[in-house]
Each structure stands twice: as C-alpha cells, then as structure tokens.
Amino acid sequence: MKIVQYDADISIKRDLDSGTEEQGKVVTEIIGKVRQEGDAALTYFTEKFDRAVLEDLKVQEEEVKQAYTEIDEETLDALRAAIENIRDFHQRQTTQSWFTTKADGTMLGQKITPLDSAGLYVPGGKAAYPSSIMMNVIPAQVAGVERIVMVSPPQPNGQLEPVVLVTAHELGVEEIYKVGGAQAIAALAYGTETIPKVDKITGPGNIFVALAKREVFGEVDIDMIAGPSEIVVLADEQANIAYIAADLLSQAEHDELASSVLVTESQVLAEAVAKEVQKQLETLPRKEIAQASLEQYGQIIVTTNLEESIKVVNELAPEHLEILTKEPLNIVGKIRHAGAIFLGEYSSEPVGDYFAGTNHILPTNGTARFSSPLSVDDFTKKTSIISYSEKALVENGSKIATIARLEGLEAHARAIEIRLEEK
Amino acid sequence: MKIVQYDADISIKRDLDSGTEEQGKVVTEIIGKVRQEGDAALTYFTEKFDRAVLEDLKVQEEEVKQAYTEIDEETLDALRAAIENIRDFHQRQTTQSWFTTKADGTMLGQKITPLDSAGLYVPGGKAAYPSSIMMNVIPAQVAGVERIVMVSPPQPNGQLEPVVLVTAHELGVEEIYKVGGAQAIAALAYGTETIPKVDKITGPGNIFVALAKREVFGEVDIDMIAGPSEIVVLADEQANIAYIAADLLSQAEHDELASSVLVTESQVLAEAVAKEVQKQLETLPRKEIAQASLEQYGQIIVTTNLEESIKVVNELAPEHLEILTKEPLNIVGKIRHAGAIFLGEYSSEPVGDYFAGTNHILPTNGTARFSSPLSVDDFTKKTSIISYSEKALVENGSKIATIARLEGLEAHARAIEIRLEEK
Description:
Chain A is of the alpha/beta class and 423 residues long. Chain A is 43% helix and 16% strand.
C-alpha cells in the first residue's frame, strides 16, 4: 500500500460503476417487455440470461425442504444466532405514532404506518449472500411490512442456492420467485400475472439491477444505489498492526473497486501495516482481487496528529470506520460522517457485516454526509394528523387567511372564512 | 365537477411535468457552466433569465431592514404565530441517539447527527411563498443543521420580495443569495467562490429547478420532486356542503394540474357539492385556473358505503385527505396511505398549509404509499456504533467466521480468527 503525507487537498479515489449507455438501453428494453408481456417475458429472459428453463417461477415448499438437507448444523446455528442479534437490534429502532394536544382543542400528530409490501433482490452468481437477505428482510419485518417478496436468479438447473432458501425460511419469507436481473426489478415494480407489484425494492445487484432500480424509482421506492465497499481505519501508534492489516484486506477482497484506507499520525505504524498487508495478502484465496483493489484504491495517510486524522475521516465520510486508538469512545463525538463506527480492537468490521446486529447496508461513496444505514424507518412512512377545533379556528382564522392572501391564494382564505361566518 | 360511480378499476388522473428533452439539455448546460465558471456564470444567467444586473449575489443587512418597512403589523403577527406553531410541532419530531449493552461487554448504538449544511430554494415570480420558507427552514433548524442557506431569483430591480426577506430574518436565516433556477441548484451542489456547497437541497421550484435537482442528486441529497398538489375529501351525508366545496376549490386554485376529489357514499351530497362548487367558483380571482383544474382532474366518486370509500382513499394515497364524517377519528386507523389527514369540519386544509404546525411539504402523486412529510429526520442521518468485547468475540468468533466462509470471503474470516489466536 502506498503511504502519503496528509495535505489539505487529500481525497481518496472512489469509482462508481454507472453503467454504459448500451447497458441502459438493454435495461429499458427489458423493463418495457416485462410491462407488456408479464410472466412470458420473465421466463424468456430467465432462459436467455440464466440458461434456466422454469415451469414455475415460484419456489415450492419441497424445494425448501430439500435445501435443509444440504445445510449442516454448524451453519444453521451461525445463521440463527445472527438472525437473533439482527432482529434484537432492529427492534430497538421502532418508533411510535404520537400526538400532542392544546387547550383550545387542537390535536396534532404523526402516525407511523408500515409499507404494505417490499421486494428484496438477492443476487445469484458464484457465491450466496445469506447476510444480505437478513439485513434486508429483518428491518422490513420489524417495521410490520405484511408482504415481503424475495427474487433471485436461478442456477441453470432451475434451483436457488440451498443457503438462500434456508435463510429465507428461517426468516419466515415464503414468497420467493426464481427470477433475477432487470426483469426481476421490472416485475416487482409493475407486477405480472404471478408476481404482484410491491411498494419498495431493496437489495444489492449487478449493474443491470442497479440501472433498473434507478429507472423504476418513483413508480416504487428503492433503497440507495450502493457504490463499492470502503473502510477507513483510524489508528494511533499503539494499535495492533496485524489486526489493521487483516481488516484492510477483508475490505479489499470484496471487489477490485473496493477501497481500504488507513489514517494515522504514526509513520512507524504506517510502514509496519504496509509490510504486514503484503505478508497476509500472499496466502489469500482472493489475492488477485485484493491486490488490484489495494493498488488502485488503497492508501495509508499519515497526519501530524489525532485532530488532523479526525478531520481526514470527516472529509472522507467513509462507509465503515474502525477506530483503533487508545480511547476510541472519546473520538465518536467528533466523527460527523460515517455509515458505521467500529470501536476498539475486537470490533473488526466482519463483526458488523454478519453478526453483531447492526445493519450492513450502509451509505457509500461519501454519502454518509447525508445518508443512513438501512433501518426500520426505511420500511415505514409518516402521515401528519391535524384535528382543529372550532375554538382554535375562531382564534386563529384571521391569521391563516392573512398568510393565504399574502401568497395570492384567495380560495384558501375563503375556505377558512366560510367556517367563521356567523360565529 | 363530474360525478362517477365507484368501480374496482377507478383511478384519478394525475399528471407530472417531467420536462422535455430540450429543457433537460438546457439544465445540463447551465450546471456545467456553473461548475466551470462559478460566480461569473451565476451573474450571467441572472442577467439572462431574471433580467437583473447584480453587484453582489449576497443579500445585505440593509436590504433586510428595508424589507421590514414594507410589512405591516398584522402580517408580521401572522407570520410569527405560524413560525411558533411550526417550530413547536417539529421540536416533537426530534429523535435521540441511543445504545444498548450486553453482559458480554458488547455495546451497540445508533448515533443521530444533523447534516452540516442545507440549501433552501425559494421560488421567485409572481407571488411570494413565506410558508414554503418556514416549512423547509424549521425542520433543518430543529435538526441542528449549522449552515442554512437560502437562494431565490431576484426581481429585475435586483431585489427579493420583502416578505421573503422578513420571513427569513424572523427564522434567523442570514445567508441568502439572489440567484434562482438551475444555476442556483448547481451553485448549492458544487459551490462557487461566493456560495459554498451544501449537503442537501430542498424546496419547490419550476421545471428547470426540478430537473437540476434530479441531476445533482447523489452529489448532494435532495428532497422529493413534488408533483401537482392534490386533495381527497372523504365525506358522509351529514358533512357541510359549503365547506367541502370551499376546500376542493382551495386545492384547484393552486395550479391547472392540481387535483380535487370528493369520495362519498351519498349521491345527494355529491350532487349538492357539485352545484356549490360551481357557485363558489364564480367569484374567485383565480377562477380560470381552478376551473381548468376541476375539469381535467376534479372528480366526485360515489361509493356504496363507508368501507368502500376508505378503500378508494387507500388506492389513491392522496397528498391531503380531509375526513368529514360523523366520527372522523374512528377512520384514521383504516387509512394506510396519505400525506396528511385533516379531521373534522374545522380542519380545513389551509389550516395545515400555513399554521397548525405540521409540515406542508407532503408526498404527491400516490407516493404516500412509501414517502413521508418533510420532517426533522430529513435533516439528520444515523451512524451505527459497534463496540465488541474480547469476551463477545471469543464466544461468537467461530460463528462469524462460518458465515464469512459461506459467502466465500476468507479474509473476513481471518480478520476474526487472527484476534482469537492464543486466546
């Protein structure tokens, strides 16, 4: 990893795959065809892109039963423990409807209502990501969303990965369709004969899925379009070099576009970490990906003191921030922008990725300046409640009419005054 | 207004102005020029579009003082009372950072941080909208946003409307720039020599402003892109006909695209309201706009009973819903989708537009299915906090590593295991 001295214009390189014009066109065509032809388009594209010929888009109970026979006890235990922790944390995020009253009879309030339905996209491909399923489904369930749908592209044999089916079943998700790509997003947004439309689509996917989500946004709600994953480790001279190196590598192995950054005031630590990263890298199965990521997007930034390090972190607004200093809790109040903050040497990022309970879907690419981790709030919406009394209207009506006329809206003023006549 | 009988496929016509390709190109060019040339581009476009030649983009103290001389006491009283109510309601929306601990030493939490800065767009043109300023500024202030900037296009004499300056001053907003249109949005998103960039842009504007907001989204956050305003009145046979008609008209006068709908099981009421609307319409100053709106987008839907009326409301998911039935509070729990609900005959929509305290920036065009009124939450973001203890990691580390390997991420597993060696 390259070591650079901090200066005021520092930035980290982050690249977002926004897709090509050609990919955009393909996505628009796919969405159009699904809107027109429904299920027929879904089976057509599934055969074309996933090389799977399906009789039934919907996953059947027997397939789920079969999946359980392929999962060992240790895996099941780990998944169940993670689900329990994630549910526990998200249950603490729920908010209540509330109201306030005044002596004049006015009642104002804010009503919280869960969305009616949510659709979760689960990527297919080489690996299965049970943690993504948990992180999307659990906040929706805790919010009280009644209908939760999962879609995922089948393998050429027409099946989904066993661990995907088992995780969904453990969570209580029963409506699962074997369809992926832009065609799955179109089905969730507009509905087909088999798949009724949903109100919100969440979950990660490839560039076609991302482009399709962007295109259907407005028709339905979507979660953020995620950029590549990033970590910033803020460390002082006493931090454990091997831990830092391992954590930087765990980010780098995700993706060649992933970004791993160390910020420290210690030149000694900087050099030791650079060496240790090289050493640990050698034996990684995903060595080539991690190496490419580190070469392009990895950086060790050496500052002159802790305050300057904190300044750098706030400028970067990282998705993940690990604080490996003597007194990490003292620093939390100074961090203005981060998706998640991991405190101390036992809070390795994978603890939060999989298990502790917090959500791993976090704002990337500097958007932690204004965005939040996925949460229960993302699956509810608010409605304002206004109940005005006769007394309140008599007392305040003329003021309301004054503002309405100030804005040139006479009918607004009259709607108030007609109620005050003969009072 | 036309009266239609309910059937299962009912929908209301809603049209969103999405702009033309030509308008899109103009906006892209303006944004590009502001990014390249900064202030020079702003003064250029302000001269071109607003016919104002400015020496200084920033509003000076003397201009604010001058504005106060043009506002009468009654107006000032009304504005101050509205501000007080709106601030009171929004203060009840604030949420606290929280944390939870476990016996094994784990600490998890959710930290709430206000955005650093927010930019508010205030439209210029024929009328001034002090209520828009309040509804955008107050939630940002209550959230704790440190830097709140206002932009608004000047009149040809280089000035802003006095009531705009007075409202801003009453709220405590001091950073105001005389610039509007797409160029103002570009300045807020990318910054110029005079106008530092912000993290989030809110506030209504014309199609150029809307397109510009859409284009800079991601670089900064934006609020929703609002569609035309809508009201649905849900009424039974005992409701006051004159009040309903006045409220439908107050929506219709906004805009030719605005939508006013009455849903009722009473054919008698339906016919009486249609007649009364016609009568009240005659004397309105904005008669032509209201008439055009009612002809295109106005509708009275007659259902067979209250349950069916409620079903219609949920299908429409209106921005504003007035409930004018015998027991309006009994119905609130059955309404799943609405931006704001006004209960009873004294809760005319303008009460909420201007004065009661709730926010008047609400989800339009059916997006109340998944969106919320503008609130304090829109000016804060969350950060997850994870502090794991050695004990917790020793107990759970193997489960975490199991899930990591299930996902094919070996470096994730090793980041955990390196911390467990020799324990």
